[in-house]
Design the sequence.
């Protein structure tokens, strides 16, 4: 299973606030998209996983905002699995600026934010459950 | 069952966009909140309704944006049932400015937006279903 | 200037509601993304336009929801300019299902929703303004 | 200036995900609302502050999700200033369940989540700035 992946994110207008920058809450779904695409690269969709009764609930989120992202920025999010136990997965994230379109000066590759999250595996009734063996098996981290 | 209700809405920072006004997508959940509270005033929560297998899916939304709402504005939303058949409910909405806090001039009571929606009753598998008798029974509209 | 464009949209987890389908408010930013990419195809970003003091405010939104979109669905949104005056732009939208990943049966190409919007050109103080000549000039519709 | 405040939050339908619980990204605006109302209790709106050129940008967010919040839950958020320097403010948050309306068993007062954030004061160009004296002056924490 791949333990690192990158996705491109285009900042939506509705994700930006009156300061003209992406609101800090908007980053949280981007991290989730990073996890989703990392899982897809392993050959499975989270949609199928959830349909099979395996749910992943977030129990911790830590985000550091270093530089603002602006409307229409093209960003690159790198997602990495840094810990994996029988019941939890830990990810780390790096969000970088790829391209800015509003005509202002910018530094491509600049680090905008970092984050880490912990997910816990639960069943449909919200009780802790073991991760599927194929997901937990190789003992990364 | 009451067919008209009002709620107060405080505009959240994250609902505002780089123009410094509430993004047009933010109004859509407010209309939903208006419907929820109107239902609650009839003695039932939509949460309980859904738990009983009665789902209301939106099939049409028409919104007219007349004047911008700003961050931290206190708004008044009036929601009205204007049509009710065995399988559908139609609502109309008026959104007015109650109070503006950023120190700029404003006209309390000013009409900011109007909207109308149509909801269809469906079951858990997404098939059309009849509205519960107590909800559809009095033939408003 | 191109008057028709298509974009792909992947339904985010956070855009879906307890019915397991995309919430109707989530479609509204997708329509905006369709407009943004249609403008970009003409060689200009909306970010640059806004930086030049040309703002486009939505005054009307009409959406028809026909079939639900589900988490992780890959959708195709077609955006079309259907009217253009000195101060307003009208768009129409068709949202279709391209690919479903949760293992359930589906009909690729199925029409999920249609919509239309009207945008008005305003200046930074919210006053009506004329569209830039290059945008309004060719008199589509 | 008060350094502790509580607000009530009603969980919106659109804030809930296919697991039937509030999506973890939805909590982030609630924390912001807690800060806004704490500031208002000191006699000033953040809207007026921003209008005066004083912007508060989040630089760190740490959230711990303990128990899910459900659609239509009435929650109580307690926000506390725990640190205050010339350029930064630190807050801590506790989110508790007040009332659940879907008919399922629940424990009123149950702790659902905790969080902490750090805000930095910036000017309109995004440069670090000193907090207004009245805000920073009393040296809490």
Sequence:
């Amino acid at each position: 299973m791949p333990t690192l992946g990158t996705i491109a994110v285009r900042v939506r207008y509705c994700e930006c606030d009156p300061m003209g920058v992406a609101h800090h809450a908007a980053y949280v779904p981007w991290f989730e998209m990073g996890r989703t695409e990392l899982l897809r690269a392993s050959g499975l969709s989270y949609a199928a996983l959830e349909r099979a009764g395996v749910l992943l609930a977030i129990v911790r989120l830590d985000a550091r905002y270093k530089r603002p992202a602006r409307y229409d920025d093209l960003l690159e999010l790198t997602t990495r699995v840094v810990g994996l136990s029988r019941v939890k997965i830990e990810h780390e994230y790096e969000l970088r600026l790829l391209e800015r379109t509003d005509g202002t000066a910018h530094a491509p590759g600049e680090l905008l934010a970092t984050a880490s999250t912990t997910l816990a595996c639960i069943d449909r009734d919200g009780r802790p459950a073991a991760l599927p063996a194929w997901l937990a098996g190789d003992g990364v981290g």
Notes: The beta strands of chain C are 4-10, 55-65, 74-84, 88-99, 111-122. The domain at 4-136 of chain C is CATH 3.10.129.10 (Thiol Ester Dehydrase; Chain A). The mean pLDDT of chain C is 91.
